[in-house]
């Protein structure tokens, strides 16, 4: 479980599938109201307080984004407590620690980071025969980021590709919007095939 502060009132938590499996939670369970998911959320909020000083009292907006290979990205935004209703309302707000508004979404994007260009090239040569669309390559925070669209991939093909990606790189929770805004597009389309052809 990795977490980072995005702003004073917003944090991002990245859960791998291993994090979920260790707690006996399946990806589909995140959409259900079950005690294990509540325990996981409490654990995340405790860790966010200890690591980042993020106080999760009051209303929280929680966005959960499921990514096919990497796991789950959870963005928690703290709202402002409503103090306009007098003393009784303040007591109610303080009693109810979490007031959650949860939104769920899924993405078909697989995003992996590579620290070394040589690792990126070795990976490209291995997965090239497995791909029809070679994705987009970005440069972001001194790493090479490969973004692939898994929408048209069969499960077996996706598992094989993710296994190769994991061998050479590491799953990352950075979104395409973030890459386009703050990163640099190196190869816009068919990145894997272009890498294999040029190097």
TrEMBL record:
Signal peptide: none annotated. It holds the Pfam family MecA. It comes from the Bacteria. Belongs to the MecA family. NCBIfam families: PRK02899.1. This is Adaptor protein.
């Amino acid at each position: 479980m990795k977490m980072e502060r995005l702003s004073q009132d917003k944090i991002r938590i990245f859960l791998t599938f291993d994090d979920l499996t260790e707690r006996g939670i399946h990806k589909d369970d995140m959409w259900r109201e079950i005690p294990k998911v509540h325990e996981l959320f409490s654990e995340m909020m405790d860790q966010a307080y200890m690591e980042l000083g993020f106080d999760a009292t009051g209303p929280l907006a929680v966005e959960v984004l499921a990514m096919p290979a990497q796991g789950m990205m959870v963005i928690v935004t703290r709202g402002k407590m409503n103090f306009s209703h007098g003393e009784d309302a303040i007591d109610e707000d303080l009693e109810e620690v979490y007031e959650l508004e949860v939104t769920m979404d899924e993405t078909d994007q697989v995003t992996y980071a590579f620290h070394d260009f040589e690792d990126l090239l070795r990976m490209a040569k291995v997965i090239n025969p497995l791909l029809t669309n070679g994705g987009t390559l970005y440069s972001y925070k001194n790493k090479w980021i490969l973004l692939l669209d898994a929408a048209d991939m069969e499960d077996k093909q996706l598992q094989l590709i993710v296994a190769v990606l994991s061998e050479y790189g590491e799953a990352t929770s950075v979104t395409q919007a973030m890459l386009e805004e703050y990163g640099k597009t190196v190869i816009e389309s068919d990145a894997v095939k272009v890498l294999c052809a040029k190097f």
